[in-house]
Specification:
4 helices; three-stranded antiparallel β-sheet; elongated; four-stranded mixed β-sheet
Length: 202
């Protein structure tokens, strides 16, 4: 089972419990919803007395009964009625950005420099955010120096965010150096996509 499916399974459980606690007249059921990225996973509901229902399309539902039963379509109004409160309480997923740097420097590449206002806009869109910033390097040169350079890159981005005077609770800055490569390469290899900073806004 993929990670996306597992995430959906967790969400299904929360929705099923919400329907049960609400004391709905109908049977408790599971409904398949889109993932945040717009994709749709898959889940199979197994009844205690046998029978399965496999959900593969957005809006498909299955009753949580001893025999599971056949999948059926659940309209938006019913989803909102049964699960609206639970969906509204679901924490917003982090927003992530990758910013890329010129080789051996703390200077953003032009496309990433042009993207930086989007980072600030994403921070403004959330109240009292926590931000994680991780610096990375490629494998060209000394590993210890690369770890230092990656940290400097992360700190540069952190300072630019602080300078914007936004509603930020905490900024955590770390360096992974050349340990977590986006693109696997041999040692002493220049790779622009590995010279990056990850910004996670939550």
């Amino acid at each position: 089972m993929t990670r996306v499916m597992h995430g959906m399974m967790t969400r299904f459980a929360a929705l099923a419990v919400a329907a049960l606690l609400a004391g709905c007249a109908s049977e408790s059921y599971v409904v398949l919803l889109d993932n945040p990225d717009g994709s749709t996973g898959q889940v199979t509901v197994s009844g205690r007395e046998g029978g399965t229902a496999t959900l593969t399309k957005t809006g498909q539902g299955a009753d949580l009964t001893p025999t599971a039963g056949e999948p059926y379509l659940v309209d938006d109004d019913r989803i909102e009625q049964d699960f609206g409160t639970a969906l509204a309480a679901t924490p917003e997923l982090p927003t992530r950005f990758l910013l890329y740097f010129e080789t051996g420097t703390t200077t953003l590449q032009p496309p990433s420099e042009a993207q930086f206002p989007e980072v600030l806009a994403a921070i403004r869109a959330r109240p009292a955010v926590d931000i994680g910033i991780i610096g990375h390097s490629d494998t060209q040169g000394d590993a210890e120096l690369n770890a230092r350079l990656a940290l400097e890159r992360a700190e540069v981005i952190a300072e630019r965010i602080r300078a914007a005077n936004l509603d930020v609770v905490e900024i955590t800055v770390t360096s992974h150096g050349e340990r977590n490569l986006l693109v696997p390469t041999p040692d002493d290899t220049a790779e622009p996509r590995n010279r990056r900073v990850e910004v996670s806004i939550r």
